Amino acid sequence: MFQLFLIAYRNLLQHSRRSLLLGGAIAGVTALLVFLNCLSSGVKATMLDSALTVATGHINVSGFYKVTAGQSAPLVTDYKKIEDIVVKTLPDLDFVAPRGRGWARLVSDQGSMQVGMAGVDIAHEPRLPKVLKLIDGKLEDLAKPGSVLIFENQAKKLKVKVGDSMVFSVLTPRGTNNTVDVRVVGIAEDMGLLSSFNVFVPDVTLRSLYQLAEGSTGALLVYIKNMKDIPKDIDLLDKALRAAGYSVMDRESKAFWMKMQAINREDWTGQKLDLTNWEDEISYISWTLKAIDGIALVLTLVLLVIIAIGIMNSMWIAIRERTREIGTLRAIGMQKTRVMAMFVIEAFCLGAIGTAAGVLLGCLGAAGLNVLHLHVPEGAQFFLMSTTLKFAFEPARILGAAAVITLCTTVISMIPSLKAASLEPVTAMSHIG
Amino acid sequence: MNRMKLKHMLAMALLALATLGQAAEALSKDKMVELLKGIDIRVRSSGDYKALVYLESREKDKPDIAQEAIVYRRDVDEKLMILFTKPKTQAGTGYLRIDRNLWYYDPTVGKWERRTDRERIAGTDSRREDFDQSKLAEQYEPSFGGEEKLGNFKVWVLNLKVKDGVDVAYPIVKFWIDEDTGNDLKRQDFALSGRLMRTSYVPKWQKLYSESKKAELWYRQEIRIYDEIDKANSTLVIIKSVDLNPLPENIFTKAWLEAKSR
């Protein structure tokens, strides 16, 4: 076997120009695939990070409360009882955070914008201090009623700094206008797209704005120790909540606000609970991830076809050039399978070296761009979920991509190799040209 | 010293007289309710009502938006429909009130959405109440706010507070009512928190004879609404024409509005 590798290696060296061209093409395709994989992983990491900070837990026990059949509010009443059920039911629970939910017009002296409000009790939010990077102000001040924590981009748009006053204007669940004056206590670093339209306020402020009772919240954000257990834990919660007499809605992979129209059309009143996971809550933006993966797949397929044609063509030429050599090898006793293996190994070596170079090139490119913190134009921010270009490295995904390309080049080389192996020694030896 | 005392006493007497005078001019509760009922009755149509409305909204850092809509009303049945006709991108969208629900129709997606009865109309500062019949006496409890001059007009100022159990967009309203005509000329709407949300001026009132009512029907021909939170925003509402002829019987239906967008 070693001899076959040696022959393959020497052949590649002998036809260095052809090997370089073909290997370069393989390296290019691999680099592109690795680059797109890193981008997709980066988008996913940013999305997960910002979603779990701003909008959702690993699992959410949320719900809707309807005073009349036509008017629903994203509310969970008497949430302490539900929190107890969650704590008792989930064995791998990390922590539970009640979060108020609202949608408001935030107005400063210089501008205004529509924002999603997350009503937090900062004492019950162990994750926030770890992940929110404050540029200015103090996160602890968010415990004071009438405070607000915004993100960098929002501060720029509203032209405010820490200490400035703003007004939240909302419609209460009964359709009455209400406002509350707030003071900016902190400005945090942007965390992707979700942080462009979400802000944090103390839960008491949100409750007073919406005229809500003490024991109600928007959702219970449940964080568990192992994300792989999410489907299993949702099933456990579903059973436990139903057993406790709660009405639980059928699972639907949509963010809570996307369900409100349909719920408003349903003829029921009172409380219904809804169980979602983090992917459901950001389903309206996760299509971008699928789009990046889709583009990567299509591009790779197209380029793989081109490479396959290149490999086959190159092998045909090699076989034609080495027909007499094949004939001689067969005449001195080399088996057909070994002849075939000789050519397949040559293609494998070319593929392996090419993809290795491609992985290196793609990773270097992604790492280089990561270091530069390139700013993403506003139009592309929606697509890439971030204000700066971010790449993440998932070794399994990268090695998988390299393996697929190497495998393809090897498999495709089997067709001409089979042809070479099937040559009769006499015919091959007498081949001219 | 005596002179000083005399001056002080004189000042006190004048103040007492002024207070007495003001108290004498204060409107009684009944009179205020009567004024509000007067407005409600004046704008109420006992037959059908159709008005062509021009809406112009201004927002900071955004181009002005002009829209045209037709407002259909059948006050007896509390029916209301607003159908947008201009610009082309908005044509066919509409609001329809069925019972206590306001429905919004978007022809681009062909779907109806249930909206709150008290939300902004077509993204402007106007509300459904600005186009609908008036129910001031039914919804609010008035208290006297004084007598003022508003430009050349002598006006009564009424402070209105929403009655218990009634849902309105603005729970506190300040009203400036023309003493001569009884028409409101200015209105300030406050949020539940007491913050001023918007100020509206009604520089033009119009009237026309209603056959079904056997009396004159009044309407606010021009309303200028200023957003007091987002100071740069404002909306102009002009009622270009009013038609009191009977409307088709089946007009206040989802199907009718949908058909208009086809």
What does this structure look like?
The complex is a heterodimer of chains A (433) and B (262). Chain A has 433 residues and is α+β, with helices and mostly antiparallel strands. Chain A contains 15 helices and 11 strands. Chain A has helices at residues 2-14, 16-55, 79-89, 128-131, 152-158, 203-210, 230-243, 256-265, 278-281, 287-321, 323-331, 336-372, 378-384, 395-421, 425-429, and strands spanning 59-68, 71-73, 93-107, 112-120, 134-137, 147-151, 165-171, 177-188, 198-202, 219-224, 270-277. In chain A, strands 1, 2, 3, 4, 5, 6, 7, 8, 9, 10 and 11 form an 11-stranded mixed β-sheet that branches. In chain A, helix 2 runs antiparallel to helix 14, helix 10 packs parallel to helix 14 and helix 12 runs antiparallel to helix 14 (395-421). The radius of gyration of chain A is 30 Å and the shape is elongated. The relative contact order of chain A is 0.18. Chain B has 262 residues and is an alpha+beta fold. In chain B, a hairpin with a 5-residue loop joins strand 10 (184-190) and strand 11. Chain B is globular. The model of chain B is unreliable at 15-24 (pLDDT under 50). The A-B interface holds A 70-71, 105, 107, 111-112, 167, 169, 171-172, 174-181, 211, 261, 264-265 and B 60-61, 100-101, 113-114, 116-119, 167-171, 189, 191-193, 195, 197, 229-230.
